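Two proteins follow. First one:
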Amino acid sequence: MALKYLIRENAYYDSVTLMIITREVKKIEGVKEVIVGMGTELNKELAGNLNLLTPELQKITPNDFFISLDSIDDNITKKAFAFVDELLSKKKV
């Protein structure tokens, strides 16, 4: 299990975009589970239900963007995080 997370404080993205990105990241071979979202109580509860909630993620606020991911190894995690950034940058265009 390679559970990793990324937090960006005060970085807002709309929930529909983040749900679509989550679905796309799940398609990456080697990704076991992922959630991409804002730090709302509902998203933190969902992360907990998926065994993706860390003590650090418990502290984030609804204004904070996060990714929590379980993959087979760190290379897959890096690929997935880069893919999220790619999809987010395309959304801004």
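Second one, unrelated to the first:
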Amino acid sequence: MKQPNRKRKLNMDSKERLDQDGCLEQAEEEKKPKDSTTPLSHVPSAAAQGAWSWEWYLKEQKAVAAPVELFSKDQSFPEHENGFQIGMRLEGVDPRHPSVFCVLSVAEVCGYRLRLHFDGYL
């Protein structure tokens, strides 16, 4: 169901104006960012700059990295990939009905992460 187009009133002190198509358009001075930051269109992409690295980021931001001691062992990434492959089957609990067990298929493997598909999900 399509909602009707709603028109917006223009105030006399508004810096918006109608373009040729009758659409609202902001005045040029309002299109510019209000602070002195560089617009995103002028920021070079990561591909143009090369690979992104923490060292470069910390140096650019004049920041100091948090000490490794602040991170617990369970927050670190596993050092090896899991042994699952696409198409393998698992048994898992239905998240909506915890008393029901379902057959799951491995749909995607990305490092230590798995994307699982519920086979025959109701």
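SUMMARY FIELD: The helical segments are 28-31, 46-49, 54-61. Residues 108 and 114 are 6 Å apart (CA to CA).
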